[in-house]
Write a structure and sequence with these properties.
Blueprint: H1 4-21, H2 32-55, H3 62-85, H4 95-121, H5 126-153, H6 159-181, H7 188-223
Helix pairs in contact: 1-4, 1-5, 2-3, 2-4, 3-6, 4-5, 5-6, 5-7, 6-7
């Protein structure tokens, strides 16, 4: 038990530190821990809903339950919570903050889920869990937070369009991830390229958020 907890928590903290340290141009938001706790608390109602749906056989086919419903409900509630308690917060004051908040909340969820999983199945699954579910949740959070930052600070499209992308793109990626894990045969030949794509896609969004932040700083300088 004492060994499992740090092993289960370490991947989430490492990934959060990675994305936190990539922000070198602005003051970091001070309530990332709050977002992490919100995500951790979100785990239990989502797991309860999933359990009830499975126990009551709400869905006739397991693919609908394990692929579509799981991806949709998890990303929807993360998006909803970010909109409810983070989006209009005064500390959300630059595009990269969206990524930090999205990652923090997603990793709160992923960390509690990881703890529960390792308590059930043992430490032997820790490395695979860190490389796949925990990392994927972090990257879904990056993408969601990137589009939330665009919704709040970009004038290129309407706010509603960016908010729809903040929900729809992570949801789509999560569904693809779930579907890949359920493929028969050598699923690892598909999940590895998909995770590489997911990392490249996420890091590209990090770069774009930094570029957006630079443009905002330049605009503020010329307005003074």
């Amino acid at each position: 038990m004492l060994i499992l907890l740090p092993v289960a928590i370490a991947p989430g903290l490492a990934l959060l530190s990675f994305f936190y340290l990539r922000n070198q141009m602005a003051t970091e938001p001070r309530n990332l821990l709050q977002a992490f706790i919100y995500g951790a608390a979100l785990t239990f109602p989502i797991l309860f809903i999933q359990y009830v749906c499975e126990a009551e056989h709400i869905f006739t086919h397991p693919i609908i339950q394990d692929v579509f419903f799981t991806g949709i409900i998890e990303e929807f509630f993360k998006w909803f919570l970010l909109m409810l308690v983070i989006y209009h917060h005064i500390e959300f004051d630059d595009p990269y903050d969206g990524i930090l908040y999205g990652v923090s909340l997603s990793l709160g969820f992923a960390t509690v889920e990881n703890v529960l999983y390792l308590l059930s199945y043992g430490v032997d699954t820790a490395l695979m869990r860190a490389l796949l579910p925990v990392s994927s949740h972090a990257l879904f959070g990056v993408v969601m937070g990137f589009y939330l930052g665009k919704a709040k600070f970009s004038r290129l499209r309407s706010e509603k369009t960016w908010l729809a992308l903040a929900l729809g793109v992570p949801m789509t990626l999560h569904i693809i991830y779930n579907a890949t894990l359920l493929l028969p045969g050598k699923w690892d030949y598909i999940i590895i390229p998909f995770m590489i794509f997911l990392w490249l896609f996420g890091l590209h969004k990090v770069k774009r958020a930094h570029e957006h932040l630079v443009l905002m700083m330049i605009e503020k300088t010329y307005k003074k």
